[in-house]
Amino acid sequence: MVKTPFVIVDCEKEVELCKTYDINSYPTLRLFRKERHGKDGEDEELYTQVKRYRGRRTAHAIALYVRKRELPILTRIEPSDISSFKTIDDIVIIAYLRPHQDSLLSVFRSVAARNNENFVFGYSLETQTADNEGLAMPAIVAYRNADGDNKVLNGHFKEGDVESLLENARKSVIGEVTERNLAEYMVPAKLTLYIFTSTSGSATRLRHDLTPLAKKFEKFVIFGVADATEYAPMAKSFGLSNEGETAFPALAIHAPMNDNVFTYRQGQRIEKGVVEDMLTTILQGKAANGQIFGGGAARMDDGHDEL
């Protein structure tokens, strides 16, 4: 949940207002945030900061964007709040420090100030909290909630070490298919595995399940998640149906080098072991174009897209 109110403006009626904020295409989202600059007292000024939203136009993506900007640059986390804070965003950066490690906290705060537009940052000074996470202090963890592929920086660190951790945390072996990067999924020397989903919940579940496979087959296969509605024509071209409550999530593997396509039987639960057998069979050249896998997998738990 976010605390920021959402307001709809009809730019055909509020022409001057929309001109003021350089809005010339629709829909457009702007985040207005009041901030104080200067010293406390008479010299302090309150002004409105306007941020242009450029992310995906989904409720999940917009909520995450707003939630990040409701938080301070760096949050001290109490033991009772650690579980909820770890999952507040797709990627959350937490430093586990001893109370006397002020210099390390200063380094971490400096990096957080430069990168808070993209990440949520917090820190804990509780030894028991670090013990519960299986960590020796000091340590920094980048929690990747979208796929569970967490990154850890152990021991004393400098700003460059933390920046490298952030760069590593940005990388995902299962990417998101967009119009801008579609060409990256057409590498002739590799297979492309597309996961078509209609909810963020099913995308997250499958990323968690299949990330180990994506790492194992990284040299030979590119993994990507595609929105089932936005990329319905692509799914159809691979022989997947968009009809019925169990149509998605769905999975197809495309071989750009010869345009062969292999699909996972729709309506069956997408299981890691079955997908691994599917990839192995294709890479060994034992699969026929158009072959459907997953016939022995369990059916969907219910008649709806998972989660």
From TrEMBL:
Gene3D superfamilies: Glutaredoxin. CDD domains: PDI_a_family, PDI_b'_family, PDI_b_family. One of its GO terms (biological process) is protein folding. One of its GO terms (molecular function) is protein disulfide isomerase activity. GO terms for cellular component: endoplasmic reticulum. InterPro entries: Thioredoxin-like_sf (IPR036249). Belongs to the protein disulfide isomerase family. This is Thioredoxin-like domain-containing protein. It comes from Massariosphaeria phaeospora.
